[in-house]
Structures are given as structure tokens and as C-alpha cells.
Design a protein that fits this description.
4-stranded antiparallel beta sheet, 7-stranded mixed beta sheet, single chain, 42% helix, Rossmann fold, 2 domains, globular, alpha/beta
Length: 248
């Protein structure tokens, strides 16, 4: 069973345990870049470029979000959320956003909403510091190009101690912050073999890559951490290690 399917099972069990109203409404909508990350956020963030979007779910007065390249609107009940087809990217995004919102309403997850304005830029140094505090001087494999995090990792550990994978063909083969960008579709094994620790975008739970990433790091017996708000609910349910210093 995949990670998101495991999360769904635990989510359902928690809903039953906490007597969640399964007929309660969940409303999901895509956000504009300024709504998602704030008008003052650096234009270099992928959300600002509009190629990928944040969708936001509202449930029981709480909000939960998910990052996706297949944004869609949706409305239904908590029960409808639980039977969405998780083989489809738009459904995964809606499910993750909705689950994050319900878990936030229950007090079972935190940081379910993206940080805004200056905080996304401040995030990188905080993540890099936390990583060094935990693991010392290590070679870091970043999975998913978040520019502030990449720049901060390169600054703290040195560009020669960082590599990054990305799925965006505009980035693959380029050098960012002195770090070569490898192909996320074909070079995961290369990254796992090279690094001491993996730091993966939480949006991997939506784009479908999380199971492969987790499997490769588990096989290699190397630590894997996730960053961002998208994976907040899944991480809370499954005990995954997550860094998200300014999630709201």
C-alpha cells in the first residue's frame, strides 16, 4: 500500500474515532499566486510563475492546502473526499488539501497553509540550519527545486555538498546557486547514492513520486525528510519527518 493510501486509512480511522461529521462540507478552490504566497513574495518562486498552483480546502472553519500542476475546484462531503480516485493527480491534490483542512480542524495537523510574503525566502536558511543541527555536515540531496532552500543549503554546506533533482524541463541541466540540477525522472538513484540525507518536497505526495522516493531512501538506509505544507497531514498521520518553519 502506498503512502497516501496509508494516510487515507489512518485519516478514516481518526474521523471515526473523533466522530467527525462525514456529511460535513469540504470546498476546494485554486488560489491565485498572490493569494497562495503573498504579493511581496520573490518572483522566482514557481507559484509566482503560475506554472503550478496551490489549491485550498475549507472544512469546519479550517484551511488546508496542496501544491499541484493540476489545480481544480471541488466540493463535497468528508465522506466523498475519502472515496476519491487516488490514481488521478487532480483527485490526489483535492484529497490532500481536504484531508489537511479536516485534520487542522481536529487539531491533528499544523502548518497546513503556505507561508506568505517574506517568509518563503526566510524559510531556506531556517531549513538549512535545522538540517545541520540534526545531522551535522552532510551531503544533501534536495528533491524539488525550492530556490530559497537550495540557496541556503549551498551557502551552509557548500555547493559541492548539495545536489538537486527537479521535474521541470526548464530547470534540468541548469546550475542554480552553484548546484547542478539533475533530472528527477531518471536520476533519483544517482542522487540517493551520492547524498547522505534526502530532503524532498512534500508535493511529492500529490505528484505521485513519494513512494519511489521513500523506497529508494529506505533501501539505502539513509534519512529522508520532507519540506512544505502539502504533506502536513500525511506526515502527522504517518510520523514522517517534516520541516516547515513558517507554515501557518
Amino acid at each position: 500500500m502506498g503512502i497516501l493510501e496509508q494516510a487515507r486509512d489512518r485519516f478514516l480511522a481518526l474521523c471515526r474515532e473523533r466522530a467527525v461529521d462525514m456529511d460535513g462540507p469540504v470546498i476546494v478552490r485554486p488560489l491565485s499566486p498572490d493569494e497562495a504566497i503573498g504579493p511581496k513574495a520573490d518572483a522566482g518562486f514557481v507559484i509566482k510563475k503560475g506554472k503550478e498552483r496551490v489549491i485550498e480546502a475549507a472544512a469546519s472553519g479550517a484551511r488546508g492546502q496542496a501544491f499541484t500542476d493540476r489545480p481544480t475546484s471541488w466540493s463535497g462531503r468528508v465522506e466523498d473526499l475519502l472515496v476519491l480516485d487516488l490514481s488521478q493527480v487532480p483527485c490526489r491534490a483535492v484529497f490532500v488539501a481536504g484531508m489537511n483542512a479536516v485534520l487542522r480542524a481536529l487539531g491533528a495537523a499544523e502548518g497546513t497553509v503556505h507561508c506568505t510574503d517574506e517568509d518563503p525566502t526566510r524559510c531556506g536558511p531556517e531549513v538549512a540550519r535545522a538540517l545541520q543541527d540534526r545531522l551535522g555536515r552532510v551531503r544533501v540531496g534536495l528533491i524539488g527545486l525550492q530556490p530559497s532552500i537550495l540557496a541556503a543549503l549551498a551557502d551552509r554546506f557548500g555547493p559541492d555538498s548539495v545536489r538537486v533533482l527537479d521535474l521541470n524541463p526548464d530547470n534540468i541541466g541548469a546550475t542554480k546557486s552553484g548546484v547542478p540540477v539533475w533530472d528527477g525522472n531518471t536520476e533519483l538513484d544517482r542522487l540517493v547514492a551520492w547524498c547522505d540525507v534526502g530532503l524532498a518536497t512534500g508535493s511529492s505526495v500529490v505528484n505521485g513520486s513519494i513512494d519511489d522516493i521513500a523506497h529508494r531512501f529506505r533501501e539505502s538506509a539513509k534519512p529522508l525528510l520532507f519540506f512544505g505544507n502539502t504533506i502536513s497531514g500525511t506526515a502527522a498521520l504517518l510520523g514522517l519527518d517534516r520541516l516547515c518553519p513558517f507554515g501557518r
